[in-house]
Amino acid sequence: MKAAFPGSFDPPTLGHLNIIRRAAGIFNELTVVVAENRQKNYLFNADERVTMIRQLAKKYGNVSVAVCNSLIVDFLRKERIKVLIRGIRGTEDFSYEFELSMMNKTLDSGIETVFMTTDPEYFTLSSSIIKEIASFGGNVSGMVPPLVARALKKKYMTKK
Ligand code: ADP
């Protein structure tokens, strides 16, 4: 069975990778779907996010990476994927994700959203907090893989 794990991944964190590893162990094929929404202001462009995730997930033979600039339900239909995976860090994530899953079910009743709860060591990790820490020159090495830490450093060096 195929599944998709969509998100901004701006940038990918150890929390995202935890979900990718576990989902790749459950489903036959996993597509990590990088969102490209013109209304959002990303730090890393879609190509940069895709390249980072490809590098990080290449050790899993059944994980591929794609970009989506349409509604996720349209992407899933086109790719014939019925399972959408979302990670949950706590009750706040849950209420947001629950509403999103209801919306997606309204748009396409064939989609099943599967929630995976984070492993405890990652539950405080979010891309936005990590960007904030990195923007002030803080150490994010326990929160993201080394290649992402390097990319953040470079990004904020050139932004200054
Ligand atoms: P989005 O902008 O779509 O929320 P994110 O990149 O922030 O994209 O998150 C993608 C998915 O990964 C979401 O389901 C989110 O809840 C989940 N996620 C983010 N951080 C973690 C984490 N530390 N542990 C588990 N899941 C996470």
Task: Give an account of the 3D structure.
This protein is α/β, with parallel strands linked by helices and 160 residues long. 46% of the residues lie in helices and 19% in strands. It contains six helices and five strands; from the N terminus they run βαβαβαβαβαα. The protein has a five-stranded parallel beta sheet with strand order 3-2-1-4-5, with helices on both faces. Helix 2 (46-57) links the parallel strand 2 (29-35) and strand 3. The longest helix has 17 residues, at 91-107. It is globular, with a radius of gyration of 15 Å. The N and C termini lie far apart (46 Å). Adenosine-5'-diphosphate (ADP) binds at residues 7-9, 13, 15-16, 19, 35, 86-87, 89, 93, 118, 122, 125-127. Adenosine-5'-diphosphate binds next to helix 1 and strand 4.
Q: Which keywords apply here?
A:
binds adenosine-5'-diphosphate, alpha/beta, globular, five-stranded parallel beta sheet, 160 residues
Computed structural class: alpha/beta
Count of beta strands: 5
Ligand identities: adenosine-5'-diphosphate
Sheet-strand content, in percent, reads 15-25%
**Unreliable segments of 5+ consecutive residues:** none
The overall pLDDT, averaged over residues, is 96
Q: What is the chains' assembly state?
A: single chain
**Biggest sheet: strands side by side, in what order?**
3-2-1-4-5
Q: Roughly how many Å is the radius of gyration?
A: 15 Å
Major sheet description: 5 strands, parallel
Q: How would you spell out the order of helices and strands?
A: EHEHEHEHEHH
Q: Helical region count?
A: 6
- Distance between the first and last residues' Cα: 46 Å
Shape: globular
Question: Level of helix content?
Answer: 40-55%
